[in-house]
């Protein structure tokens, strides 16, 4: 492939964050900076490298990072929080991409909230988002370290209905793709439906249901090039210049099934 992969370390938020940058040798005109963010628990940037390479093949530079306490980054997972995730991702974006470069944000699981937090920060600079088996969280959990009461807060019934992410996504006017696995034992159906409604409010929205997939979509997609191509092509599809925000072709709540290859 005609691209360059570098593994580097970036100092941010008191941590040393391990990142991959994947750079096309021939960048396309008007290329976006793509940011790929893993989920919680054992999530890491390694599983997202094939995805990053797919975007770079189309001429877009990509960064994938390990949040602190994950992968090869420093820190303890118990000290991480949703706020720190946003701050760490923003620091990496500022290091890797020039301020005038438009952004595409891709988030897995917990990073469904992180994408919204970054979207609130960057506004119209973000042209497209892909949310893969995404989670969102109540406002009172946002600044709580994962090892200091976060779990108890998010286990309250339907605490996610109070998420600030829903308002942010309802205002988004770019392209939005919701990627849903066939079997998700982690994310409640209510979360997915709230996100579907919010994203469809004003964005050029579509949904993709991955047959045979479970919640660990990063791992699953690493071995599914067809599914990755479908996601990439949807996000990079040119938007008609005459299309008004919120008026694009949407799934209208009916996901497109894509079986495993």
Automatic annotation (TrEMBL):
Keyword Hydrolase: yes
Domain Serine aminopeptidase S33 per the UniProt entry, residue ranges: 34-142
Native source species: Streptomyces katsurahamanus
Residue span of region Disordered: 236-261
Protein name: Alpha/beta fold hydrolase
SUPFAM superfamilies to which the protein is assigned, alphabetical: alpha/beta-Hydrolases (SSF53474)
Keywords associated with the record: Hydrolase
Domain of life: Bacteria
Compositionally biased region (Polar residues): 240-250
One annotated GO molecular function: hydrolase activity
């Amino acid at each position: 492939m005609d691209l360059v992969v570098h593994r580097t370390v970036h100092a941010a938020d008191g941590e040393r964050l391990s990142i991959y940058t994947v750079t096309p040798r021939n960048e396309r005109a008007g290329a976006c900076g793509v940011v790929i963010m893993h989920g919680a628990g054992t999530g890491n940037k390694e599983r997202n490298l094939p995805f990053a390479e797919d975007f770079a093949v189309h001429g877009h530079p990509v960064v994938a990072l390990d949040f602190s306490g994950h992968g090869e980054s420093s820190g303890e997972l118990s000290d991480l929080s949703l706020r720190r995730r946003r701050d760490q991702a923003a620091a990496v974006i500022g290091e890797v991409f020039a301020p005038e470069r438009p952004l595409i944000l891709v988030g897995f699981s917990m990073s469904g909230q992180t994408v919204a937090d970054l979207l609130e920060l960057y506004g119209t600079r973000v042209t497209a988002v892909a949310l893969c088996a995404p989670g969102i969280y109540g406002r009172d959990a946002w600044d709580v370290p994962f090892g200091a009461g976060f779990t108890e807060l998010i286990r309250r019934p339907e605490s996610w209905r109070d998420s600030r992410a829903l308002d942010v996504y309802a205002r988004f006017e770019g392209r939005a793709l919701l990627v849903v696995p066939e079997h998700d034992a982690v994310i409640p159906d209510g979360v997915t439906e709230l996100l579907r409604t919010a994203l469809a409010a004003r964005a050029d929205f579509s949904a993709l249901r991955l047959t045979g997939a479970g919640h660990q979509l990063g791992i699953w997609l690493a071995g599914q090039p067809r599914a990755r191509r479908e996601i990439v092509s949807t996000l990079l599809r040119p938007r008609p210049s005459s299309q008004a925000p919120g008026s694009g072709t949407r799934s209208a709540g009916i996901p497109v099934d894509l079986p495993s290859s």
